[in-house]
Amino acid sequence: MTNEYSIKDLERITGIKAHTIRIWEKRYDIVKPERTVSNIRHYSDDELKHLLNVSVLVNNGHKISKVAGLSEPELSMKIIELNDLKSPECCGQVESLIVAMIDMDEEKFEKVLNASIIRTGFENTLFEIIYPLMKKTGILWQTGTITSAQEHFLSNMIMQKLFAAIDTLSVHHHAKSSKSFLLILPEWELHDIGLLVYKYLIRRQGHKTIFLGQGVPLDDVIAVKNQIDPDIIVTSFSSSVMNVQMTDYLFKLNEHFSARPIYVCGLQAGKLHSIIPNNIQKVATALDFRDKVLKSL
């Protein structure tokens, strides 16, 4: 399957202004769009990947006039040289990972991500590489320009890294100040990557986690509460559902955890405008959760 991208899609994905893309197209023949019967440009996967590679080099100080004359193998070699510099200023990892996702190239994806983890550590890679990658992938998904197979490829690669990072953290909690966190999702929520990030951050701070993830009925969550009374509850809303559905879930949850702090994370949490109980707090980002919630415990 070959996807088609508008020039606005290219602008959102690569960060290069549409006006600049048109200039590069005219002056350097950087991309070669096809046109619809109404003369509207559209671009293929190959054009997108080429432009992503060009943007990596230009953003790292290479002149467009020099980059324009490079073949695809030469572009790839230049990007490899950038990564080999081991400089934190090199900013081509996200673009390289998007290309690997489009091609579903597991070896390339592993190589780029592992290089960042070795260079800066998992947590820095999480916030500086993985989060921007997921944001740009969200744009691709919203515009219908990647397939579900490509999205699943990306999700599974990231989850593998999260599981590996979590496994390196100790499960022994001897400090008296350690808290127990119950991490749950509503039954309609199928995306648990975000909740895994919170599990990693919580364990990183030396606290205990009880991760239930997706598909657990609320009655079963309540049964867990009766068996293991957690100190703090964390849930996440990522799928687009009605405000009333999210609010109803929180009120039902609060009936049984009213004496405990409940943190609501995820993209959809920001859309909660209804009055919610005082012990329920919205968390804008994982960084906020780490710096404002965990560090205050």
Which outline best applies? elongated
- Main beta-sheet strand count, sense and barrel state: 5 strands, parallel
Q: Count of DSSP E strands? A: 7
Structure classification: alpha/beta
Helical stretch tally = 13
Q: Please bin the fraction of helical residues.
A: 40-55%
**Secondary-structure element order, N to C:** HHEEHHHHHHHEHEHEHEEH
Radius of gyration, in Å, reads 22 Å
Give the terminus-to-terminus CA distance: 50 Å
Question: Overview of this structure, please?
Answer:
The protein is of the alpha/beta class. The chain has 13 helices and seven strands. A five-stranded parallel β-sheet has the order 4-3-5-6-7, sandwiched between helices. A hairpin with a 5-residue loop joins strand 1 (34-35) and strand 2. Helix 7 runs antiparallel to helix 8. The longest helix is centred in the middle third of the chain and has 21 residues, at 122-142. The chain starts with 6 loop residues before the first helix and ends with a helix. The relative contact order is 0.07.
